[in-house]
Amino acid sequence: MPDVLNDRYQLEKQLGQGGMALVYQAKDLMLERTIAIKVLKADFSSSQAFQERFKQEARAAANLTHPNIVTVHDFGLDQGALFIVMEFVPGTDLKNLIDQQGPLSIDHASRLFVQACAGIGYAHRAGLVHCDIKPHNMLITPDHRLKVTDFGIARALASVKPDEQFQAIWGSPAYFSPEQAAGRAPSPASDVYSLGVVLFQMLTGELPFAHNSPQELALMHRYQQPPSPRRINPEITPELETILLKVLSKEPAARYRTADQLGRIMINFTQRDPPPAVIDAPAEESRPHSQQEFEETLTALEKKQPAQRWLTIVLGLLALTAVGGLIPFWIWVYFQFN
């Protein structure tokens, strides 16, 4: 691999390695700034179909401008090396953070998760589905800003040759939605499911499904119900567990439709008054007791609005009434003294 790509990008040091690419810290010699470059492995770069699809997806990703999305600056092909140029994000990724700290506090996890929903929701509004959401693709800066990366690359992998497609599909089997595991096209609801797996891991330090075999993992995602997160982490409230289990529903229609909607639900959850503590709650009571309770809890959460909003409306109506009542009085004064 050349040390300088396209006579412009000087590779300085390797930052990481995944199943399909190497990530480098580099320098843009033209603009004199530090950047990050992801260089695709030769198996993918040599595919003409992949090159064309990669260019399309890179262009789409480059149009995403959001504080919670890693900015794509450029892409290219140099001496057989297909690469994408991105902003350099100092810090770590969410996977390393969980590995180092274990389960995150509910407050810390919620603040990071809402940022992930904001970035991915923005992409959904732009018509893009990420397809490969996982903690490894969520970078966290020293000031605790989360940025989602690798938009479009997973979609480009769908164009590789059939004998290579197995490796592409099973790139992140622990986070794939049931429909992706079944080989169907992903949708925004698929990203929502993957976000649910990430949130489960953030709150418990564990994955909802784990197996050494990708095929077995696929079956677990498609047919097996996830364990109760409250059994693993008793600090998770029943309301939060209800949200999480809805996100991990097997059917896309049963989940929140987009990451934006999920983010709003999480914001409402974090802004509510804290519920009373439950002391020594039996483990079997950690889930809603029935489907009816499950739906009633969700309905209450989704309809819950801050009381200040109603107060603002009432005060506004009173103000309009007061001003309206003064109008006849000033008309009378005008005709009396003119």
Unreliable sequence segments: 161-171, 273-291
Distance between the termini: 91 Å
Gross morphology is globular
Instruction: Output the CATH homologous superfamily of the largest domain.
Output: Transferase(Phosphotransferase) domain 1
CATH fold node name of the largest domain = Transferase(Phosphotransferase), domain 1
Strand content: 5-15%
Main pleated-sheet profile: 6 strands, antiparallel
Oligomer: single chain
Query: In total, how many beta strands?
Result: 9
Helix- and strand-based class? alpha+beta
Please tell me the total number of domains: 2
Order of helices and strands: EEEEHHEEEHHEEHHHHHHHHHH
Whole-number average pLDDT?
82
Written overview of the protein:
It contains 14 helices and nine strands. It is of the alpha+beta class. It folds into two domains: 4-87, Phosphorylase Kinase, domain 1; 92-307, Orthogonal Bundle (Transferase(Phosphotransferase), domain 1). Helix 4 runs antiparallel to helix 8 (188-204), helix 4 (106-125) runs antiparallel to helix 12 (259-271) and helix 11 (238-247) runs antiparallel to helix 12. The model is unreliable at 161-171 and 273-291 (pLDDT under 50).
